[in-house]
Design a protein that fits this description.
About 25% of the residues lie in helices and about 30% in strands. It has a 7-stranded mixed β-sheet with strand order 2-1-7-3-4-6-5, with helices on both faces. β1, α1 and β2 form a beta-alpha-beta unit. About 30% of the residues are buried.
Amino acid sequence: LNVTGVDAVEKAIESARCKARDRGVNIPFLVHDALDLLSLNKTFDTVIDSGLFHCFSDHQRIAYVNGLGGVLRAGGLYLLMCFSEHETREGGPRRVTQAELRQVFVRGWSVERVEPATFEAATLFDGGAKAWLAIIRRARATQVSHGSLRIDDSQASEKHPPEHGPSIRPAAEV
């Protein structure tokens, strides 16, 4: 299994490197902007997002989803955990509704499942934070529809040669 850890925060990357070293695991960790995934020059079978999507503005979400479409192979899985609108306590990141998830992943994606979950490690709230766990699949080449979200398999294959097996996940989660 090939894994690449990405986080924009150097401290999170250093923490992840220490955890990996302590566990005897060799994983590349990169300080990288998630809104510029294409510059990774890689493709992935699976992308795991634990607590990033809910940090983005509406405009940034579109850019992020477009970037995901460029690094996630056709038919690949995007596994998402984000704060839900059911978390009504003050503080923490922006809340996300199921409708918002389904709206941003409408073209070129299939939202297979969205179910209630809990961020158990969230120290902000006693008992964790209410969240959504979503399983979203990138459309296969024959299913790609053109619209406001551009997913161009020819561009992805030219700029990002396929690497079967890798995943990208937040560095702090490793």
